[in-house]
Predict the structure.
Amino acid sequence: MRYWEREKQVLHLLEANGAVSMTEICAITGASVATTRRDFDELQKKGLAQRTHGGLRLPQKKEEPGRRYVNGTEILDDIDREKQIIAREAAAQVQAGESIFIGAGKTCNMFAALLRDIERLTVVTTSVTAVLELAECPNISVTLLGGDIHTGKNYIETLDPDINHTLRGYFFDKVFLTVEGVDLERGYTVQDKNRTGLYTQLSRMTRRLYMLLDSAKFDRRAFATMFPPEKACRVISTRNMPDKFVEFYRKQGISCTLLPIE
Amino acid sequence: MRYWEREKQVLHLLEANGAVSMTEICAITGASVATTRRDFDELQKKGLAQRTHGGLRLPQKKEEPGRRYVNGTEILDDIDREKQIIAREAAAQVQAGESIFIGAGKTCNMFAALLRDIERLTVVTTSVTAVLELAECPNISVTLLGGDIHTGKNYIETLDPDINHTLRGYFFDKVFLTVEGVDLERGYTVQDKNRTGLYTQLSRMTRRLYMLLDSAKFDRRAFATMFPPEKACRVISTRNMPDKFVEFYRKQGISCTLLPIE
DNA sequence: CTCAATTTGAGCGATAATGAGCGAAAATGA
DNA sequence: TCATTTTCGCTCATTATCGCTCAAATTGAG
């Protein structure tokens, strides 16, 4: 049986059942598992099916662009669980009447969602998703900084390379940021260079700069460097933080909260 | 039975009964409890179900305060149907490569959602909800103007009384706005006075200012006046527009599209 | 026919899925 | 409340599948 015949067969069965198994197809087409495997790879490459262990399934309905269910706080894996624990600790630091800045990222979304009951809170942010968490809270005054929309996996943020003049005259009791990576040599790094200007400026506009770092951030380098790791700030992370970072922060005298992972 | 078959079975039964038991599924699929347990974990991780002792339940959709599901495009009544028709006509006016401004409101949300496939579109807006509709379209450059967050029934917008300096240097091919009310004496009126400055400025920054007016807007007065009704602009509305408005616009030589309500 | 390119099949260690067993925790019922 | 039963979470051994490479078979061109 030639490969186009096999492909036709596979697609037919796939259409009918929603999924087919490797052994099933091998039996029907008479081809070896190696060949069937290659067929499956091919079909996946064409986007006609999706490979699974032991078989193929119909490609999941693609959500329309822009219509994606915006949910930047859902816990999907262990790293998300870490983020949630970190967000809780960060939220515990915020008190009524304070003015804070919130960065963009999933941890920050979770963090924002935990602030709803704090009285007379003033929040400034570049995160559209964080705004969604707080928009309807009458006790919280939310200001969204403007700029071009950039979309990450779990967040939407605004980026404005000339943002600094907008911030003039503000002072924050606390600033909460996440980054894409931390590295002892390169420091805190982010993917978009337009963020570095804002974040660096923010570090000068507060006495309490919190970095929220889950364990996926350590020893990773993103494109643009913001500031060196010894820059004075407070770190909230989990016990998964590698020893060399723990030691480094301790040596620098930087307050470093390591939360247990329940 | 492979795991995708089990998943299909489980989801099917879950949909039908609202809950399934572990032993039940084990019997049906022929898999061991260990495997079924893992399946359940997987489904919970995907957010498709919620684990309980001895089984699975449908995830309860809880509406936390502030976490209200932001859906600014849902059609709930006849007025919404009008808005949808108006939005479609407005979207038909937009061409590839243009730069447009979108205001805040349900009609504008619907309008934004219809722009996703237009190539090389530049969108500037104060509507956070409109941004959500367009954020993930790579063909569209979206800029969100900053400001304080204000929440309406069907939208979230930013308001900045000093916005005008940010707009300096921009020019829009078309500007699409809605208002809270139109009145032949008072003109276009909105609830928040901070919007009038921006909207008045916008009317000077384009040659094509479209007003999107459903029939609930006529003969209503909101708090703040923006500009008089004879101010040059194009109107998109439905045949429900009262005759005196039709006559007025015609006398003023203002282009006025009256759409049939299907 | 020869030779190269493509397609297929087989073997290999690595990886993922599965099933069974065990102590701990939770639900059940007196 | 306490004892019993069920379920849970976890680990470990087993099995199936995966990804890969290399050899054999098939195909097509000169």
User: Anything to note?
Assistant: Chain A has two domains: 3-57, 78-259. Chain A has a mean pLDDT of 87. Residues 3-57 of chain A form a domain with the Arc Repressor Mutant, subunit A fold (CATH 1.10.10.10). Residues 3-17 of chain A form the longest helix (15 residues).
